[in-house]
């Protein structure tokens, strides 16, 4: 009886995964049909339905991690020419999280809430220290915003001259999703 229950559970898991993937493709096909019928609004609505299904199914990820000198909006940033910093200079990161969940702010808005943890390592991999909830971003919106950036200022004051690696872990407060990402930096003499 036990092997049958395990096989049944495996079949249910396989079916659920296939249904999820099918839902995305079905909604995208509906968008294509609407577009072929010159129904631009309907096509966009169906495409957004497909995007919503994909967004819910995908893991949290962090795209376009850049060391920057400034950022004023999504995709609007000035990248640093190098990753070399003077002692005491802040590292400023720009990143674009995707796949996050939505909560509620209690006022009828969807709320996005993310934070990051940091571990600093030497070039050889020796762990120098970890910091939890180093930075946090929170956004309330009537829409399920997909274009969102996270700007993070990191102070590594006190590190001696040398090359380092910063390992981050982003957490989604509206789900159990996490996403690791890494960047290298150097403290000049």
From TrEMBL:
<feature type="signal peptide">
    <location>
        <begin position="1"/>
        <end position="21"/>
    </location>
</feature>
<keyword id="KW-0732">Signal</keyword>
<protein>
    <submittedName>
        <fullName>Uncharacterized protein</fullName>
    </submittedName>
</protein>
């Amino acid at each position: 009886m036990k092997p049958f229950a395990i096989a049944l559970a495996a079949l249910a898991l396989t079916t659920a995964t296939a249904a999820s993937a099918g839902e995305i493709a079905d909604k995208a096909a509906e968008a294509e049909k609407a577009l072929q019928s010159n129904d631009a609004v309907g096509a966009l609505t169906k495409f957004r339905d497909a995007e919503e299904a994909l967004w819910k199914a995908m893991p949290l990820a962090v795209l376009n991690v850049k060391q920057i000198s400034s950022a004023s909006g999504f995709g609007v940033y000035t990248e640093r020419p190098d990753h070399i910093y003077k002692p005491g200079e802040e590292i400023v990161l720009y990143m674009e999280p995707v796949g996050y969940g939505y909560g509620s702010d209690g006022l009828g808005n969807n709320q996005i809430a993310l934070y990051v943890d940091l571990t600093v390592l030497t070039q050889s991999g020796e762990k120098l220290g970890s910091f939890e909830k180093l930075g946090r971003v929170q956004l309330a919106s009537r829409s399920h915003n997909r274009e969102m950036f996270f700007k993070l200022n990191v102070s590594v004051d006190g590190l001696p001259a040398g090359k380092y690696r910063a390992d981050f872990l982003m957490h989604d407060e509206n789900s159990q999703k996490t996403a690791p990402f890494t960047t290298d930096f150097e403290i000049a003499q």
